[in-house]
Design brief:
The chain is α+β, with helices and mostly antiparallel strands. The chain has 2 domains: about 30 residues; about 120 residues, Mannose-Binding Protein A, Chain A (Roll). It is about 25% helix and about 15% strand. It has a 3-stranded antiparallel beta sheet with strand order 1-2-6, with no helix packed on it. The N and C termini lie far apart (about 65 Å). The C terminus is likely disordered.
């Protein structure tokens, strides 16, 4: 009986410790503005993706029409910019650095070939893929918008 009571107290203490740590980590990592600047590249990123799957045209329009932090000059990132966020050593489902939260692995890039096919980057495995964009068909992915900090784009504030 004594061993069981000690075990129950130990288990309860461990559970409480884990929840307290998780709560503290969440508060530390929250970004109230919805953006994060990557110190390595100087790029300003949204901290959340588009929250839904969409085709490339929809993703491109999503970023073009985004108004966040008084800026309306957001865009889809290039494959190279997306790759700069990938860190295979991270111990989370989508291996993206910083406080960025993704709801899906596949993120559209701004890169399009001569045929109009668009590239996307996969934050689950670090791979890229191409999907057709003409004729209303093509793959689906999410939009993660970026702003070049050095750009003197249109501000709405």
């Amino acid at each position: 009986m004594f061993k069981r009571r000690c075990f129950n107290r130990l288990a309860l203490s461990l559970i409480v410790t884990v929840f307290l740590y998780a709560g503290a980590a969440a508060v530390i990592c929250q970004d109230k503005t919805g953006t994060w600047e990557d110190a390595d590249t100087g790029l300003l990123w949204t901290t959340r993706d588009s929250d839904s799957e969409m085709n490339w045209d929809q993703a491109n329009n999503y970023c073009k029409n985004l108004d966040l932090e008084g800026r309306s000059d957001w865009r889809l990132p290039t494959r190279a910019e997306l790759k700069s966020l990938y860190d295979r050593s991270l111990k989370k489902q989508f291996k993206i650095k910083g406080p960025i939260e993704l709801g899906g692995a596949s993120i559209w890039s701004a890169d399009v070939n001569n045929s109009g096919d668009a590239w996307s980057f996969n934050f689950f495995n670090g791979g890229t893929s191409m999907s057709p964009t003409r004729g209303g068909c093509g793959g689906s992915g999410r939009a993660l918008c970026v702003h070049s900090s050095g750009e003197q784009g249109e501000r709405t504030d």
